Every structure is written in C-alpha cells, then in structure tokens.
C-alpha cells in the first residue's frame, strides 16, 4: 500500500448494500420470498425501499442499472417461456408482456349487418385507383382511343 492509498474503513454505503441485495434477488432471492417472477416492485420490497429510490439508484450507478435491466430481462424470459408452456395464466402473461413491448394485433373488419357497408378488397381498391389515374391522364393528355 502506497502513501496516497487510503484503506476503506467503516460500513459500506447504503447503495453498495442495496446492490449486493439486488443481485441476490436477481439470482434467486425473488423465489425465496415466494415471487413467481422478479420485478422492480418486488425488488423494492426486498430492499425495503420505495420504487422511486430503486430507480434513483439505477440512475446514479451503472452496475445497479444493469441489475435492474437484468431483472426486467429475466421477467420477460420467464413470462414468455412459462406462458408458452401454460404454466402462467395467459391473460396475465399477455398483460405483463405488454410492458416489454409485446402486443396483440387485431384486424377489425367494419361491416354492417346487411352487408351494405362491406369493405372493398384491397386489391380491388388499388386496381380502381390505378384505372382512374390512367383514364384521367389519358383524357388530360389529348390521346384518343
């Protein structure tokens, strides 16, 4: 040890302690407290901190931020895999996966009960538009058929 080096004395900082516990939570601690998937809210409870404090730690410390992202990734992976195997409720899984950017696309076909407002097929609409443009351009250019 050189003269300029200082030995750390005393208790580790609150952030350092929370980082150790956050990694513990990520690596299986969430199961120890009977959580099915890890979450930021679950981590906050595990640490005994407010969720806002957990996010503050993530903003101020890169390693803590990486741990939060790993928790989100593990949650997503568990939701996808357990959802596919049917171990998780499909509705709740779908709802939770929407927080990870997943979505269900629905195509809505607006059609009246008597069929009078049925939508025209896309191909027909495109063909009609091309025909209208072609006919209009021919008539405007003075070309005779």
From TrEMBL:
Top-level taxon: Bacteria
Pfam family for this entry, one: GP3_package
InterPro entries: GP3_package
UniProt-recorded name of the protein: Uncharacterized protein
Organism: Gilliamella apicola
Classification lineage: Bacteria, Pseudomonadati, Pseudomonadota, Gammaproteobacteria, Orbales
